[in-house]
Every structure is written in structure tokens, then in C-alpha cells.
């Protein structure tokens, strides 16, 4: 079985500061990794994904994440956040076999203050 | 234009009264999902379809049923809602599993 851990339930930062949202996963098989964002009263939308290749992946809105297989981590980063980045961020994993099952972490609320 | 549409946006039902939530898509994706999301928790997968092939999660209560009459529509039926079933219900679709497209969700209240 797969699981995803997001240790930080909330991360407050000031506008234009850098931020890192942490994600660790556990799986007995190889997985694909994703970050989704959820703005208030909306569904989730894909920020970025790691399927294969370069371990540093870039997504929308200036976010990037780095896959670290030895540490089973996929932390999300942004060098300079904006007020509009305030949202809930979910890390997710999916097995590399034919399964379509996507498992989410409990989420991290990013709160950007002026 | 919305590609995954969930109706209604807010649904109020009474304890024990059956309720149906609906989801439609204009993307013609093979795979459709239903997730339950409670406040400050991870979205929890209830079930998913690959075409008409239904995949139920082992820990999804029997109280939750689903129908997919065609590619475009998928329904979530809660036969006897309890207070613990109050949550946001999210529908999603995908063609390949690499990117899920979510609807805005239906917020269910149980009185």
C-alpha cells in the first residue's frame, strides 16, 4: 500500500519570501508523484508531476519540486510567494502499474501574509 | 468553460434520507473518480471507473453506491446518510492517470 505524509498542516510566510512544503511517501513499488493545489471553494488542480527523468520538475505559477528517491521525498518549493498563492496544497502518489488510484496526503495550508 | 461539472454545489439532506450527487464531463475521459473530503483532511478515494469497470475501495462503506450510465455522467448515491457523511464530494476525470481534472465539488450537509 502507498501512503503520503505532509507533516506541516499550515505554513505561514510573508509575501516575496521563499517557501518549501514537505512531502514524504511510502510505497513498496515505484510511484508517480504529484502536487495539486486547491483554492477556496474550488476543486483541485495539478501544479506539477514527476513521472520519470530529471528529478527537478517545474510546474505552474513558479512552483518546482524535487524527487529524492533515497529520502522518499517530493518537496515543493517556490522562491518568492505571492498573496494569491494562499491555498491548500496536496501531495499525491500513484503506482507505476496500470492502477489509476491516486492517494493524497492530508494537505498543507499555505498562508501568505503581506 | 467548466469541463467537469458537479451538481448541486450545495446539498442538504436529512439523516437517513437517500441523496444522489451528480457529475458530468465534456472531456470524454475513460476514468472517473469520486473522492470524499472532510474538513482539513486528505481527499479520500471512494471508488473509480475505467469505462464501465467499477473499482470500489475496500474501506468504502456499503452505504455509498455509484452508477455510470455512460461516459459523460457519474452518480454518487448515499442510501442512508449519517452525520458522519457530511463532507465535500469531489468528482474527477482523467484520460491516462497523469493528470486529474476535478469538478468544484458538492458540499453535503446532513441534518
Please specify the SSE layout and strand pairing.
The complex is a heterodimer of chains A (114) and B (111).
Chain A: E1 3-5, E2 10-14, E3 19-21, E4 24-26, E5 31-38, E6 44-50, E7 56-58, E8 64-68, E9 73-78, E10 87-95, E11 102-104, E12 108-113
Parallel strand pairs in A: 2-12
Antiparallel strand pairs in A: 1-4, 3-9, 5-6, 5-10, 7-8, 8-9, 10-11, 10-12
Chain B: E1 4-7, E2 10-13, E3 19-25, E4 31-37, E5 44-50, E6 53-56, E7 64-67, E8 73-78, E9 87-94, E10 101-102, E11 106-110
Parallel strand pairs in B: 2-11
Antiparallel strand pairs in B: 1-3, 3-8, 4-5, 4-9, 5-6, 7-8, 9-10, 9-11
Can you describe this structure in just a few lines?
The complex is a heterodimer of chains A (114) and B (111). Chain A is mainly beta and 114 residues long. Chain A has no helices and 12 strands.
How would you portray this structure in words?
The complex is a heterodimer of chains A (114) and B (111). Chain A is an all-beta fold. Chain A has strands at residues 3-5, 10-14, 19-21, 24-26, 31-38, 44-50, 56-58, 64-68, 73-78, 87-95, 102-104, 108-113. In chain A, the strands form three sheets. In chain A, strands 2, 5, 6, 10, 11 and 12 form a six-stranded mixed sheet that branches. In chain A, strands 3-9-8-7 form a four-stranded antiparallel sheet, with no helix packed on it. In chain A, strands 1-4 form a two-stranded antiparallel ribbon. In chain A, a hairpin with a 6-residue loop joins strand 10 and strand 11. Chain A is globular. The termini of chain A are far apart. The relative contact order of chain A is 0.33. The mean pLDDT of chain A is 93. Chain B is mainly β and 111 residues long. In chain B, strands 2, 4, 5, 6, 9, 10 and 11 form a seven-stranded mixed sheet that branches. In chain B, strands 1-3-8-7 form a four-stranded antiparallel sheet, with no helix packed on it. Chain B is globular, with a radius of gyration of 13 Å. The N and C termini of chain B lie far apart (33 Å). The model of chain B has no long low-confidence stretch (mean pLDDT 93). The A-B interface holds A 4, 9, 32, 36, 41-46, 49, 51, 90, 94, 99-107 and B 4, 31, 33, 35, 40-45, 48, 50, 55, 90, 92, 94, 97-100, 102-105.
